[in-house]
Specification:
This protein has 108 residues and is an alpha+beta fold. The protein has one domain (8-107): Double Stranded RNA Binding Domain. Helix content is 31%, strand content 20%. The protein contains three helices and four strands; from the N terminus they run E-E-E-H-H-E-H. The chain has a four-stranded mixed β-sheet with strand order 3-2-1-4. 12% of the residues are buried.
């Protein structure tokens, strides 16, 4: 069985592709979400972009801990973000529509 070694680059947010989205929280307030594209379900949230970005390192560590997965990096891996994709924020109408659907599900 081949042993995988986690390097410092594994937990560096700059080693991944980010998807940044400004959205409404469940409380109707604006928040930022940064998702790591290569790590399905690895997400950091914050009231500001800075807060969401600051939480990325911890989010990556938790992602690897919970999934017990290891990722190898070649010596050629560069410590930079490959691509940042900005998604449009959720509109107030979309937010209200989702909440109406959720309310219907809860009242069934």
């Amino acid at each position: 069985m081949e042993k995988h070694v986690l390097s410092e680059a594994t937990f560096c947010p700059m080693s991944y592709t980010w998807i940044v989205q400004k959205q409404l929280s469940c409380y109707g307030e604006t928040e930022y979400m940064i998702e790591i594209k290569e790590l399905d379900g690895c997400v950091s949230y914050g009231a500001t972009y800075g807060e969401a970005r600051a939480g990325l390192g911890e989010a990556i560590q938790i992602w690897f801990k919970h999934r017990n997965e290891q990722r190898r990096f070649h010596k050629t891996t560069k410590m930079k973000t490959h691509f940042i994709q900005l998604e449009p924020k959720m509109t107030k109408e979309e937010f209200e529509q989702i909440n109406r659907r959720l309310l219907k599900l809860l009242l069934k």
